[in-house]
Every structure is written in C-alpha cells, then in structure tokens.
Amino acid sequence: MKVTFIHHSSFLVETDSRYLLFDYFQGELPDMKDDKPLYILASHRHGDHFSPVIFQLAKKRPLMTTFYILSSDIWKKHVPEDMVKQTVFMKAHEKKEVFPGMEIETLKSTDEGVAFLIHCDGQTIYHSGDLNNWYWSSEGDDWNQKMERLYNQELSRIQGVKIDAGFVPLDGRQEEGFFLGMDQFMKKVGANIVFPMHCWGDFSVIGRLKSMERSKAYRDKVADINRDGEEFQI
Predict the structure, then answer these.
(1) Is 33 helix (H, G, I), strand (E, B) or coil?
(2) I need a labelling partner for 216 at 20 to 30 A (CA). Which of 64, 67, 143, 222 fits?
(3) d(Cα 24, Cα 58) in Å, to the nearest integer?
(4) Tens digits of per-residue pLDDT, 11-67?
C-alpha cells in the first residue's frame, strides 16, 4: 500500500487494484495510472473536506474509471448529471459493498457526516473525517464529557477490527486536549500505522504526542508527516 499525504485531511491511498482519495478539496495530486480505478471519498460537506472540484478529476481520466462515495449530508445537487451513476451516498451506521470488491462501513461523526472503514484488496483502511473527541476548554465539563462519551461509543463499533492504516485528527487548536482523539483511537481500536491529519499545517503536534508518556505503547506506529506531497510505502 502506498500513501500520499495531499493536504490537511486528504490522502491518496494506492492498493493493488485501485486508488482511494479521501477528503480532497485542494492540493497537488501525484500521477495516477489510467488503467487503475479511482474512488473518491468525502466524509462530510465542510469546505476543508469536500469541494465540487472532485468532479473535475473524472474529466482528466478515461471514461468510467472514477467513482464517488459521499456522506449523505453532502447535497446531491453538487453531483453533475453525468456522474450520478458513478456516485454512492452513505449515511452513518451503514455497511455494504458499494462497488465490487470494496466493502465500506460508516460511523457517525461527532461533528458532521461520517467516518469510513474500508475493506478492499485484503487491506482495512480507516478514515475518521471529523469523527474525533472534540475537546474544547471553552465548552465546559458537561459538553466535553458528552463529546468523549459519543466518541468512544462510535469507536466501540469497530473495536477488535484489525486496521492496516488509519487517518485520525491531531488538531493543535484543541490546546491541552489536542491528543485525546488520537490517543483513545490507538488504545481502543489501534492500527498498524496511523497518519495524523487535520493539523492545519502545524506538524509539530506529531512530535508533541510522541514525546508524551501516554503514547509510549503506540508512538512507533504514528507516521511523521512533514509536508504536503509526502509519500509512505507501507
């Protein structure tokens, strides 16, 4: 599996038989083989996770080699008429074979839309979208305790699943709570390798997490991302 960090929460994953592009809205994409299908996934409608620009990508590729899996909160009017047959919408807590050889299960985000758990080519890939423990000191204890409960409730749905690659927020804007979602994911679910995302360009949060005593058990599984366009062979 080859993983390319595109920008923010967007990654391109290449498996044996397909490409998976997550939450693309801007950034330079690497060259892709025309004979390998591209599946574009958008976890929700926020502008830093979805843009109608994704439908322009199909025009640069051979006919019927680009497909879309979109969260149901994204308005259907965004989908061009000639792309409707290549597009699947998914609600939270669905599980189905969306395209041949690709089974997807969705979780309910603690913000908007869904998280994706994808099984294809013998690999299991998790992209959380905005499913995270969104701790904010300004919100107060009741709000933050509810957020943590909802987050862990969703993680429980995939506890015990062997995940090859995960993509999970690590957002420095959360100040002292920046590590909570990642820490709880790795301890409750885990992944062979996890890619921090939603860092808003501040990749120093990765080192901060890895220097914490609480990350000792999994820090070697946290990918070090330094720039847009960085590639990882896993």
Answers:
(1) coil
(2) 143
(3) 13
(4) 999 999 999 999 999 999 999 999 999 999 999 999 999 999 999 999 999 999 999
